């Protein structure tokens, strides 16, 4: 399962890249708006940092297929070929996904709340389909189960589309999807940090250090004993 950062703050992205095995960056209009700068300024800085081959996912805002198609061209021109065009799965969005795929764009079908949206996005040729796990939970439906079932729909219908699960509230949800073998999860920085912020682990490491120092002396380690 690919692990992708769902954020647009360059300092945060740099920090996560230093510590975690991450595979790229996803953004959406809300995430970009939080940066308070021109969206292309933010995105071009991210692209420069992650390099031309890493996955960057950028969402369109247009409500009809023609505008979405034009936005996609501009996004590709300014941010490079390996930029996934995130298209919400509406009626117009599906039309746009078909046209974009015919023209060789990498596409992430997004704003997915139902199995049927995901199935149609897969049929239209999307590379990824992004179910919003936490938001689905908030509708009273099990978002993790739905993401797993969407993965199964793709595999059972011989579709190449991968699930790019989005909208997580905790690290356990991401682990559940890794166990099921879904293609990718895009996770906010605080939830990524939560993947290893485990009190029991911190305690175990502290005890190792305490025991070592009680025998070898304060401030010792395997360099200076
Ligand atoms: O792009 C979609 C986001 O991953 C949704 O996440 P959120 O529900 O935490 O805003």
From TrEMBL:
It is found in: Cytoplasm. The keyword ATP-binding does not apply. It comes from the Bacteria. One of its GO terms (cellular component) is cytoplasm. Keywords: Schiff base. GO terms for molecular function: aldehyde-lyase activity. One of its GO terms (biological process) is carbohydrate metabolic process. InterPro entries: Aldolase_TIM (IPR013785), TAL/FSA (IPR001585), Transaldolase_AS (IPR018225), TSA/FSA_arc/bac (IPR033919). Its main location: cytoplasm. This is Fructose-6-phosphate aldolase. It comes from Alistipes indistinctus YIT 12060.
């Amino acid at each position: 399962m690919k692990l992708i950062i769902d954020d647009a703050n360059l300092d945060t992205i740099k920090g996560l890249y230093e510590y975690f095995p991450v595979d790229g960056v996803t953004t959406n209009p809300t995430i970009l708006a939080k940066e308070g700068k021109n969206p292309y300024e933010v995105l071009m800085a991210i692209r420069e940092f992650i390099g031309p081959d890493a996955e960057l996912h950028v969402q369109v805002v247009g409500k009809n297929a023609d505008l979405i198609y034009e936005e996609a061209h501009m996004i590709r021109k300014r941010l490079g070929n390996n930029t996934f065009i995130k298209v919400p799965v509406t009626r117009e969005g599906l039309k746009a996904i078909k046209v974009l795929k015919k023209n060789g764009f990498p596409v992430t079908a997004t704003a997915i709340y139902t199995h049927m949206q995901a199935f149609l996005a897969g049929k239209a040729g999307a590379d990824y389909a992004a179910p919003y796990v936490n938001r689905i939970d908030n509708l009273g439906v099990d978002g993790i189960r739905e993401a797993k079932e969407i993965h199964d729909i793709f595999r059972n219908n011989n579709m190449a589309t991968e699930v790019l699960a989005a909208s997580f509230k905790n690290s356990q949800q991401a682990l559940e999807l890794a166990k099921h073998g879904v293609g990718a999860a895009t996770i906010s920085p605080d939830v990524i940090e939560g993947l290893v912020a485990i009190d029991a682990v911190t305690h175990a490491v502290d005890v190792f250090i305490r025991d070592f120092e009680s025998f070898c002396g304060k401030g010792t380690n395997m360099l200076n004993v």
